[in-house]
Design a protein that fits this description.
Layout lengths: L9 E5 L5 H12 L3 H11 L3 E9 L2 E13 L7 E9 L8 H15 L4 E5 L11 E2 L6 E2 L8 E5 L4 H5 L3 E4 L1 H4 L2
Helix pairs in contact: 1-2
The chain binds coenzyme A (COA).
Length: about 180
């Protein structure tokens, strides 16, 4: 695709059924493999995708982000989501589309009264949205990952206190990757 990306024509909106194939292709292209594209399909099929947004410019799908349900080791009264995967068309990266997707996804999560969002990703990218090291708040991932790559963004007053000392888990679809 030769994308003549024009920022003025960029819209971020909820994903629709008609987007599914384009979103699959986008994830496949951005990651250079099928795993993340298939993960998106599974999360959607199993209805654990709480937020799924597409970035569209001139009717081309140029970005996608998904937030899906996460769980804690104990049953506690917080609603948490994991940000993954996120993809921007290789022709359109480094133009702020990813950032717009993250900001909009956070806004959607707030409107759904979500308490916190977790992400496993680049420690240089996500702090600008307010994500902090989860380890710093004594929250552990089920995966053995470097401390600074597993991050949390609190959206409610006492979410981090409630989550402190807990292990948080992605939906089972992630471990089937
Ligand atoms: C990560 C991604 C979604 C960012 O989208 P984007 O539209 O380019 O993002 P923005 O323009 O808002 O910001 C660009 C930032 O991406 C970050 N980034 C992208 N690739 C990165 C990498 N491999 N390592 C570290 N940071 C990276 C940088 O911090 C960059 O910031 P800079 O402008 O200070 O250099 C996009 O690069 C992508 O689709 N990559 C392939 C798939 C992927 O890795 N997804 C994320 C994991 S789920």
């Amino acid at each position: 695709m030769q994308t003549k990306f024009n920022e003025a024509n960029l819209t971020i909106r909820d994903e629709l059924e008609q987007d599914y194939q384009k979103v699959f292709n986008l994830n496949q292209m951005a990651f250079g493999q099928n795993s993340e594209a298939e993960l998106v399909d599974k999360l959607r099929q199993n209805k654990v995708n709480t937020v799924s947004l597409v970035a569209e410019a001139d009717k081309e799908t140029v970005g996608h982000i998904m937030l899906s349900e996460m769980h804690t080791s104990d049953s506690i009264s917080v609603k948490i989501l994991g940000l993954a995967p996120m993809a921007v068309h290789p022709d359109c990266q480094q133009k702020g589309i990813g950032s717009k997707l993250v900001y909009e996804a956070i806004s959607r999560a707030k409107s759904k009264s979500i308490d916190a969002i977790f992400v496993l990703g680049y420690p240089t990218y996500y702090p600008k949205f307010g994500f902090q090291s989860a380890k710093q708040h004594n929250i552990v991932s089920e995966y053995d990952v470097p401390d600074d790559t597993f991050m949390v963004l609190s959206l409610s007053n006492n979410a981090l206190e409630i989550l402190s000392g807990k292990t948080v888990r992605y939906s089972k679809e992630f471990s089937e990757l």
